[in-house]
Design a protein that fits this description.
Low-confidence stretches: none
Number of helices: 10
Largest sheet: 8 strands, mixed
Oligomer: single chain
CATH topology: Jelly Rolls
CATH superfamily: B-lactam Antibiotic, Isopenicillin N Synthase, Chain
Strand content: 15-25%
Number of domains: 1
Strand order of the largest sheet: 1-2-10-7-12-5-4-3
Order of helices and strands: HEHHEHHEEHHEEEEEEHEEEEHH
Shape: globular
Mean pLDDT: 94
Structural class: alpha+beta
Length: about 350
């Protein structure tokens, strides 16, 4: 299957090819521009001043409970590294099709997979998106092209994993648990980290196509950075809320396994990626979860007679296999293991 980028560059497109046409409903266009997702100051979350950290943990609890998405500022990942990663990612997608298809993995857990859409075996409509997926922890992998890409990726993934670790400590505390609870219960130090770089080429009729349809993420937390183009939208109280990119800020969202672990106290949130007709949008996300063989179920400490388990426990790797075998469709995968 040719990439969307090659399709755009090989033809003077004035319309969207039929296999990419996404039929949208009236509900797809109900927006709420007045609302914005919360902001968490990472420096306060790791502050040595008890009152400052306590207040940040309370803010984190509200963001997780009410939104499932938040902006993270002052996270300590340098803007220089950020710019290098974005530039190198752009250079990867500028490689020839022959060079990129060297990384066209066929299996879910292949170390590196370059491709298009989501799952070409089941997608009824193709998505206006090319991707590069890399398993970067517990073993680090990276393409050898473009030169220096691997070194940039490794530095970024290490730093983003540190940020994720501190967020998980804060979330543990926000649930009334020991700050190391999630780390110890789900073996986070040897856990899974998947880096996904999404490339959304300009689209001649963006209202007719979709970059990624409404879905939730697997894992505990996804850390996302993006170039300065709108596209990410989240579902909140029945309306779509655009998430406008801010310089040097992570967008954090809770994944399905955070909802499972907290027995629904904190929920994963449906989101989508729209496309535009102006320029290519790039988003870079790291999905963080436990080791693939770790069984994830509701934390016993959060259960009671009034709060029985709401989800069936399942190995993390099995959940990923199931999710990747389906079409992307809201919370359909998570719904499969609800009790």
């Amino acid at each position: 299957m040719p990439s969307v980028k090659s399709l755009v560059e090989s033809k003077s497109l004035c319309t969207v090819p039929s296999e990419y046409v996404c039929h949208k409903t009236r509900d797809d266009s109900i927006f709420s521009e007045a609302q914005t997702i919360p902001t968490i100051d990472f420096a306060h979350l790791v502050s040595p001043i008890p009152d400052q950290r306590s207040q940040a943990i309370q803010q984190l609890a509200r963001a997780c409970r009410d939104w499932g998405f938040f902006v993270l500022i002052n996270h300590g990942v340098s803007e220089t590294l950020w710019d290098k990663l974005m530039s190198a990612s752009h250079h990867f997608f500028d490689l020839t099709e022959e060079e990129k298809t060297e990384y066209a993995g066929r299996q879910l857990f292949d170390p590196i997979r370059y491709g298009t859409s989501f799952n070409l075996n089941v997608d009824k409509t193709l998505f206006w998106r090319d991707y590069l997926k890399i398993h970067v922890h517990p073993q680090f992998h990276a393409p050898t092209k473009p030169p220096g890409f691997g070194e940039i990726l490794e530095e970024f993934c290490k730093k983003s994993r540190q940020v994720c670790g501190e967020l998980l400590k804060g979330i543990s505390k926000s649930l009334g648990l020991e700050e190391t609870y999630i780390h110890e219960r789900l073996q986070i130090e040897s856990g899974s980290q998947l880096l996904v770089i999404n490339f959304y080429p300009p689209c001649p009729k963006p209202e007719s196509a979709i970059g990624l349809p409404p879905h939730t993420d697997h894992g505990l937390l996804t850390l996302l950075l993006q170039n300065q183009l709108d596209g990410l939208q989240i579902q909140h109280k029945g309306k779509w809320v655009p998430v406008h990119p801010l310089p040097n800020c992570f967008i954090i969202n809770l994944g399905d396994h955070m909802e499972i672990l907290t027995n629904g106290k904190y929920k994963s949130v449906v989101h989508r990626a729209e496309v535009n007709n102006k320029a290519a949008r790039i988003s870079i996300g790291t999905a963080n979860g436990p080791p693939l063989d770790t069984v994830v179920g509701p934390a016993p400490e959060l259960l009671s007679d009034a709060h029985s388990p709401a989800y069936r426990a399942l190995a993390y790797g099995e959940y990923l296999r199931f999710q990747q075998s389906l079409q992307l469709d809201g919370k359909s995968c998570l719904n499969h293991i609800r009790l």
